User: What shape does this take?
Amino acid sequence: MKLKSCILLFLFFISVTSFTEDKNSVSVIDSKLLVDKLLLAIDNIKTLRYDLKYDERMNGVLKHTDSKVKLQISPRKIFVNNGGAEILWLQGQNNGNALVNPGTFPYVNLNLDPKGSIMRKAGHHTLNESGFVYLGDIIKGAMKRTGDKFNKYFVVSGEEKFSGRDCYKLAIIYPEFAWEEYTVKKGETLVTIARKYSLSEHMILEKNTKVSWYDDVKEGQVIQIPNGYSKLTIMLIDKEYFLPLSNKVYDDLGLYESFEYYNLKLNEAIAPEEFTKTYKEYHF
Assistant: This one.
């Protein structure tokens, strides 16, 4: 309890001090303009390459993963190397499954559903959320909740370097973050509920301990859902790309997830063979 209280006090302190605008100062960039540029940059993504370091809280413990990612938006193609394990997913191919080289026993390629239990149990998100489009949807949901009080909740606190690159520091502050009762409607799953309100389905799953999986709910069932994606989100947004190179998300328990992008290459051509299992650098 003492640790939890310290975390909550820390979140409260930084939300009312570090990320509250000084009325006598001028922000380096207007927060609404910055967010608009971020969303426009996301809409204009065609391809991405990046190294990703991320931490996700799973059952109270932060799990760290390093990945190398190649992504094409349309048609959607993605290759991921998670420190030895390789994943290739191509829109409209392989019956919707990802080709997976586990890089360990049983040392054979697997065809796995990205939304299935084997791949989903490892983290908060699926391959479908790779890149920045999903983040853009979360931001739009936060904007909708803030209404005409945008500048109260979205605050630019200055500039900061990340991996040698100049960034704007943006905080999305939502001190009203809380859990509420929700009655499941016909045909809903935790995923559809989360998408409807721009929430984290994994966060909902962990909160509702009697729910065993994302589709393990039925009409009329009462569950707990948060009223927002986070209590506090801190982004470092690249001044050239207007994409977040660092994104730290806090809920009522502390750090929920953290994503850091290195060596980001935006809209550079990716050769078609790099999205094939026979590409010379892969081991499928």
